[in-house]
Amino acid sequence: MHELSIAMSMIEMATEEAERRGGVQVSAVHLKLGPLSGVVKEALLFSYDVACEGTPLEGSRLVIEDVPVVVYCPECEEERTLDSIQKFSCAVCETPTPQILRGQELEIVALEIEG
Ligand SMILES: [Zn+2]
Asked: pTM of the entire structure?
């Protein structure tokens, strides 16, 4: 499963970071996730719990922040947030645009440390 390997590499990164900070206990990992990342949120949450077992991160939480898809509209010359990822066009003037600025994120933004 795709999400499981992603969860495992996230846990690995967080474990290394916790060690760098002197072996602190991580209570939560905060992640930014865009709809275009190709990752299913529910599957990732589930995989995280499974992958945490037996690691220093066992019992920690994965907190996912959803990132909207933002495109650039050449007509309006503005950034526009997409209402739906089914339709890549400007929400105001309806001009189709392939220029994606945000929405592909899959990145750890913060670690919550216990204590
Ligand atoms: Zn527009």
From this structure: 0.86
